[in-house]
Amino acid sequence: MRGVEWPTLCLLAVCYGLWMLGTTAAAEVWLPLGMAMVTFSTALHSSLTHEALHGHPFRSRWANAALVFPALTLVVPYLRFKDTHLAHHRDSILTDPYDDPESNYCDPKIWRALPGWWRAVLRVNNTLAGRMLIGPALGTVAFTLADLRRMRAGDRRVLLGYAQHLPAVAVVLWWVAAVGQMPGWAFGLSVYAALAVLKIRTFLEHRAHEDARGRTVVIEDRGVLALIFLNNNLHVVHHMHAAVPWYRLPELYRGNRARYLSRNGGYRYRSYGEVLRRYLLTAKDPVPHPLWPR
């Protein structure tokens, strides 16, 4: 039993404040500043949405969903994010090309059947630079097309997710058009940049590994990206303690570092700077799952 998690609630208020200021006064004073504020707050809002679907800052799932109702990223309905992400938290299916909704691997048999130009695009997408530049577009299109197929097949849960998503997008677009001082192209570019920043986090969160415990990363970063990602860079800690709020993860990691690194087989990076240096233009993994179907 717990009460209100005030750090999360206060950070959410700051997030919305930065976003509203970025789309209005800051954009009017100096557009690049406004765009930077919108990018930062939109990416942060996505991380706060992740907290909400894991049961923070309230015990009520309805209250948590209401707090992150505005779809600042414009894509991926809250209910779809919740359903797919909670399915992803089954460690036994991590990186599975079929059962893990967040896997970036594909079935080698499917890979061999793809045309050469499409394989080339996916190889570019497997570098960090490619993941940031084209990854948001590729991921959004693939996710949306898959959901359209589910809706055509009669999946009412998916249909409900998009029905709830429409007013969440509408309130954001209304603010930008009626209240905001930012051109539409600048707002769209800022949202895309936020999605690109989020791709840094998901780029190597999981690896193909025989042991499910060895598939989840730790990135010992304490900089601005760790703040935006709400300490989800300590990803194995989050997977082991999914109900723990973001602000307690560093303390858990510091107190049990050897245990966590033993559990994940030493899958660790010192910082996101190291990740950028190593993988900006180099693929960390192949696109086809290297251990499939074992």
From TrEMBL:
Annotated Fatty acid desaturase domain residues: 30-269
The keyword DNA repair is annotated on this UniProt entry: no
Keywords: Membrane, Transmembrane, Transmembrane helix
CDD domains documented for this protein: DesA_FADS-like
GO cellular component: a single term: membrane
Membrane spanning stretches: 62-81, 159-178, 184-204
Protein name per its UniProtKB record: Fatty acid desaturase
One of the protein's GO biological processes: ceramide biosynthetic process
One protein family per Pfam: FA_desaturase
Statement: the UniProt record of this protein carries the keyword Transmembrane helix: yes
InterPro entries tied to this protein: FA_desaturase_dom
A GO MF term: sphingolipid delta-4 desaturase activity
